């Protein structure tokens, strides 16, 4: 389906909101706070659906947001991990996608406001998200009642946080959905070049800068930062959504193969013509809505006996 003018306008605004990050990541003078605020303003054009309540809370030491639909089915909780290349983003930009998930799943959706680079480099984001998951468990919520989802960097963390939880001896969530995951910070997949310039929202140069800012000396193939290199044995079922236009396409497919080869049940959806995290655009893009419905159906299956 061709991109409509309203979708293109929102893509253009999203891109425009990222221009200040490049100079900052190169060490030039500027304000990270202002750049992040501008970025969040571009995300808030995606509306919060009617029929949900949004509250700011604390998940232990981690500030967070919880989105609650009018009806919550017992035993249903989502931990949603926002994107932003580990340098930007916060739950306030994701009320739309969290609200849609909440209504589709009849579940409470918790979004940790994890720390960002460069002030807090790898592995701060993963540590904070793991702490948020531990907090849910400490509230008496059974692991099998919890599912994960996330987009971009957050999509990668769907897997990375599960691995960290397993390594910490914690029970694992029922399932996860990774939306447009940034799964390989080596950027070695062929689509990093074949889709560079075709992907309307992400480019290889920007990803290289974000990876350097996030890692600050850690290796690009560190398995905690790039789950295509992680020991993923024993993880619960995971679905991966990726747009065919994305530079991240090949590495998302590699992540799916890596999970499958390690006996993790995996579902891969490649959406022709779609761009990075098109799910955010569900209010104005039918493919975004259908992709979220597919994600919800996958997670519903994990909760059924």
Give average pLDDT, whole number.
97
Main β-sheet: number of strands, strand sense, barrel status?
Answer: 8 strands, mixed
Query: Which overall shape is indicated by the principal axes computed on the Cα atoms?
Result: globular
From the N-terminal CA to the C-terminal CA, the straight-line distance is 37 Å
Strand percent estimate:
15-25%
Rg for CA atoms? 18 Å
Number of helices: 10
Structural domain count: 1
Q: What portion of residues is helical?
A: 25-40%
What does it look like?
The chain has a single domain, classed as Rossmann fold (3-Layer(aba) Sandwich), CATH 3.40.50. By secondary structure, the protein is of the alpha/beta class. Helix 9 (249-261) links the parallel strand 7 and strand 8 (266-271). The longest helix has 18 residues, at 286-303. It has helices at residues 5-16, 21-25, 32-43, 95-105, 124-138, 153-167, 191-194, 204-215, 249-261, 286-303, and strands at residues 52-59, 62-69, 77-81, 108-112, 146-151, 175-179, 238-243, 266-271. The mean pLDDT is 97. Helix content is 38%, strand content 16%. The chain is globular, with a radius of gyration of 18 Å. Helix 4 (95-105) crosses helix 10 and helix 5 (124-138) packs across helix 6. An eight-stranded mixed β-sheet has the order 1-2-4-3-5-6-7-8, with helices on both faces. It has ten helices and eight strands.
Can you lay out the helices and strands and say which pair or pack?
Blueprint: H1 5-16, H2 21-25, H3 32-43, E1 52-59, E2 62-69, E3 77-81, H4 95-105, E4 108-112, H5 124-138, E5 146-151, H6 153-167, E6 175-179, H7 191-194, H8 204-215, E7 238-243, H9 249-261, E8 266-271, H10 286-303
């Amino acid at each position: 389906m061709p991109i409509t003018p309203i979708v293109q306008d929102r893509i253009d605004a999203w891109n425009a909101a990222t221009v200040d990050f490049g100079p900052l990541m190169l060490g030039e003078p500027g304000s990270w706070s202002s750049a992040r605020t501008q970025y969040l303003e571009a995300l808030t054009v995606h509306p919060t659906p009617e029929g949900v309540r949004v509250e700011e809370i604390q998940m232990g030491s981690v500030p967070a947001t919880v989105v609650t639909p009018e009806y919550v089915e017992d035993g249903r909780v989502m931990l949603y991990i926002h994107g932003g290349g580990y340098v930007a983003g916060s739950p306030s930009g994701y009320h739309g996608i969290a609200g849609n998930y909440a209504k589709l799943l009849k579940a409470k959706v918790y979004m940790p406001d994890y720390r960002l680079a460069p002030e807090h480099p790898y592995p701060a984001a993963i540590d904070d998200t793991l702490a948020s998951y531990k907090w849910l468990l400490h509230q008496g919520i059974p692991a099998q009642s919890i599912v994960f989802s996330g987009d971009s960097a957050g999509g990668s963390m769907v897997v990375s946080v599960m691995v960290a939880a397993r390594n910490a001896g914690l029970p694992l969530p029922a399932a996860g959905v990774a939306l447009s995951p940034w799964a390989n910070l080596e950027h070695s997949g062929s689509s990093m070049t074949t889709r560079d310039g075709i992907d309307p929202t992400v480019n290889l140069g920007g990803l290289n800068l974000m990876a350097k800012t996030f890692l600050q000396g850690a290796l690009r193939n560190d398995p905690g930062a790039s789950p295509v290199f992680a020991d993923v044995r024993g993880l619960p079922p995971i679905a991966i959504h990726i747009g065919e236009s994305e530079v991240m396409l090949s590495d998302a497919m590699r992540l799916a193969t890596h999970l499958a080869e390690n006996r993790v049940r995996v579902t891969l959806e490649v959406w022709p013509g779609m761009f990075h995290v098109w799910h955010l655009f569900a209010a104005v893009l039918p493919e975004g809505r259908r992709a979220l419905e597919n994600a919800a159906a996958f997670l519903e299956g994990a909760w059924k006996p």
